């Protein structure tokens, strides 16, 4: 009860602090691709503006899809931290169970191999027969006859009471000890969904704030994607050169002739490193042949940064930045 008493103010405090930061810091816990986010994207698509969905592979790692049934990359860190917290309990349980089993088997071996049984059997019989009918004979019979004894001793003994009597833990006991720890691990995994719920509850009470936050996230992602494309140009050119250099004619011939070997010889998108698919775009410039996956090709505004001259690119980048300025409202 005392524990519950301590728990209650703590959880209240934490929920108030979450609410405070939710309203005060627009970047705090603002990583959810909510329904409103999708609505903004849909609206922009209809207006013919740049859209974000579907997100690129690198972007997916930084956000959370609240309806996704699995634990996502950005939640993984929290989950791992929680699981690390349960690790000492889990280890202790394992050590205790192992120790119990080791002690049981040691004592059981001792009991089996130290069991001793004594069986002692002795008997003796002394009988003096004095024959005759004389007085002396009668006297002797009376005196010596008293010495006639017979005894039979039978002693059976074993050391059973001195041996250890170990009792093995049954399956029920193992279940009873393992169940709470299993429950703890399950709760750690479910915690990720609990964290998603915090945002839902806060959004329910502060719908205006939620809209502002989603808009901010959308614009931030738009900005990041535009910057990513521009900043990555040098890296893309390097990647394309790298990909072209070690490719021998033999590899190309094999790639064209042997469909079976293709999965191993597949070229990769110079931007995101995704393997080449039939939808991939291959630059038509004879010496370039850089590969782009469909979404990266759209991000590059359908201009190959590898073979397009720098001036032409920078002029197009200028027009891009004008377009990028039209953020979601
Ligand atoms: Zn790509
Ligand atoms: Zn090209």
Automatic annotation (TrEMBL):
Iron recorded as keyword: no
S-adenosyl-L-methionine as UniProt keyword: no
Topology within the bilayer: Multi-pass membrane protein
Principal place of residence: membrane
Keyword terms: Membrane, Metal-binding, Transmembrane, Transmembrane helix, Zinc, Zinc-finger
Entry GO CC: membrane
GO MF term (any one): zinc ion binding
Name by which UniProt lists this protein: DC-STAMP domain containing 1
Source species of the chain: Phyllostomus discolor
